[in-house]
Each structure stands twice: as C-alpha cells, then as structure tokens.
Amino acid sequence: MNHSQTNSLALKGVRVLDLSRVLAGPWCTQTLGDLGADIIKVEKPGSGDDTRGWGPPFLADRNGSDTNQAAYYLGTNRNKRSLACDIATSEGQALIKQLVAKCDVFVENFKVGDMARYGLDYAQLRLINPAIVYCSVTGFGQTGPYKDRAGYDYAIQGMGGLMSVTGERDDLPGGGPQKVGVAVADLFTGMYATVGILAALRHAEATGEGQHIDMALLDTQVAMLANLGANYLVRGRAEGKVPGRAGNAHINIVPYQVFEAAPAPNGDPQYLIVAVGNDGQFAKLCSVIGQPEWATDSRFSTNAARVRHRDILVPQIAALLRQQAKQHWLSALEAAKVPCGPINNLAEVFDDPQVQARGMVDRWSHAFADDVSLVASPLKLSQTPVAHHYPPPTLGEHTDELLRELLALDEAALTALRKAGVIA
User: Fold this and answer.
1) Which of 38, 29, 16 is closest to 103 using CA atoms?
2) Does the structure show a pLDDT above 50 at 117?
3) What is the pTM of this model?
4) CA distance 352 to 366
5) What is the CATH code for 15-223+353-419?
C-alpha cells in the first residue's frame, strides 16, 4: 500500500543520522524510516555502502541493462536519503557535527575506536547535542576481550551457538553444523537496536538526556538462543548436557517437524510440516492418520512422554504420512485444526494469496527503473501506517538537497566541498 500522502507517521519529526552500512545498522534505520523518521544515510563518496556491489542480481535499468544497485542493497535501504560525505576529512567531520545538532539519533557500525579518531564518538557529539541518542552496532560490543575484533554474521552464528543447534543430527545423513539461510544475527541486532533507540527517544523526550546504546551481534545471538539457552542454564549446565542439532525436529515438542509425503506425479519428493503444540492437537492428528489409540497410549499421551519416546513414535508417523500426497494431508490436517504447513520456495511465497492479501510486496519508482518490486514492511499500524516516501537512494542522490535544507549551504559552498572531494 502507498501511504505517502498521510501525515500520520509514528516517528514524524525524528531525524536520524545513519553512518551504518551492510545489514544490521541499515536494517534498524530502514525500520525507523518505515515508521516515519527522516533517515540521512551518510556514505563514502565513490563507493558508498558495501552492499551496493553485493550482486548479482543487480537492478535492471529501463533498457534492461544491469545497474550498480545490488538487490541486497535495495532490500535494506528504503525510506532514506543518501548524503555522500567523506568523514575521513576534517571538512566532512565538520559537516557531520553540524548535522548532529539537527538530529535526534546517530547510528554507526564502525570498529570500536574509529568514531573517536574522527571526533564523532558519543562523548564528543553529546557536547554538541546532549539529547542525541547514539547507537553503536559492532560484532562484540564496546567492552570485553573481543571488542577490537571485526564481527560478521556467519562467524557470530557459529560463536554464539546457533550453528551448534542448527542442521541435521550428526548421526544422520547430512548431519553437521549449518548456518541459517539469512543473516539472522545481523537482522535481530538491527531489530533490537530499533527497540533500544525507541526506548532512548522516549527517555530523551522526558528528560532531555540522550544516551549511548551499545549493540553487539554476539550479545544478540546469545539472547536469541531463547528456550535452548534456558534449557541449558536451568538444567543442562548442572547435568553436563549441551543441546545438539535436531534437524527439522523440535527439542522440546513431538511431533513438531518436517515429514515426507508421497512423491509428486513427476517423482519429486514432497514435504510438509506438522507442528503439534499440545495433547489435544496430538489426539486430532492421531484421528487424521488413522491411529486414534495413540492418543491414550501412555508412551504418547503427553508431550513429555512423546519427547522421551520420539524414536518410537516419529518413524511410525513418518511411515503413515508417506502413503498420501502432501495436499491430501494438508487439507485433512487443516480441517482437523492440526497446525501444519507446506515448505514453499520463494516463488510460492510471493504467489501465496495470504502474502498478497497482506501487501507484503511494495512497488517503487526508482531513479533507474520505473517499477521496482521489493519486500514490504510487516508492520501494520492502524493509526500510523508505515511510510512509502523514498525508494533506496542512489549514492549521494540527496547530498545537495540535504545540505541546503539542513545547513543552508549555497551553491558556492557545495561546489567548493565537491571540488575538495568532501562530498559527492
């Protein structure tokens, strides 16, 4: 949906100076931009955000030729304006400091200490704007023995335990550690950063006092362990038990996993998810698959019993489900109110009527193409719908506009800065 005409935006009037790049920081600021904040994306002249070149695929222009706008970049930078400014120069640093005085939030994901060397750390910027909410995103945070290390999502998924519980069991074919298909440590860190910024803005509004938010990918990944982390801390550590990989099964719930159905007419394998969450749903599953007596069998009647006897129960369920086609089981299970679902590829995802009905694809007019489809924000707010203001900007697309608007620089000043290589 296009809400560009509305004045009802939750973060209308909030201005964010965004010096982050790649994924975690830009994911955070894109969300803030969706909510109506004015996002100024500061990029290095000439190259900009690294993800601009992370392709193919690249956006095709009106003639069908590849541009230099990677799909990766386009998916994380809507509702922003791009300012190409070299913060390694004293003139560039001066521009950033002038902009800080007119902003509410500052986001950066440079290595620990880099911002201080540029004179752009929180300690120095709070002197310019005491209410500034300053969010740093790094791999390991501003403190601790790893603080000077570079942090990347893949490594964090490994270090933070996620890959130890993701992937097939070691004793089964294909067993071994596996990363998640998208950069979840980055994405979760971006979302936690968004929450932290909103909380800090509320505090700043109430007190006039800003603060420094120290976000670390490793911290976020550890927090994301959720029930598995709790399992280990509550019992596993004392008992010397470490959670392992369970493939497509669930550590604490049975049956809650992927099952194979009968092959498709062309012989391709077919799969479905069965996600029984309680004993009542299990009884319904038993009726659907023709084994109602399992619901009262002491080995299977409670979830705790099913977890203990999964190696007996799951193979029997699997054998029954292989006898009918995927759609047969999905229809029967849905009718019986047993949680289930298909495993869709991305073509099936975006063709799904529910995904379409929920407006999960936005269409944009971009500088290089008239009709660009991108994944939409999932936020559905009844009174302050998300913004649809700016397509992902080209590098420096709004440099002159922003410096005129916020710093009142004239053409002569802009020309001088451009000739000096400070802006582009």
Assistant:
1) 16
2) yes
3) 0.91
4) 26
5) 3.40.50.10540
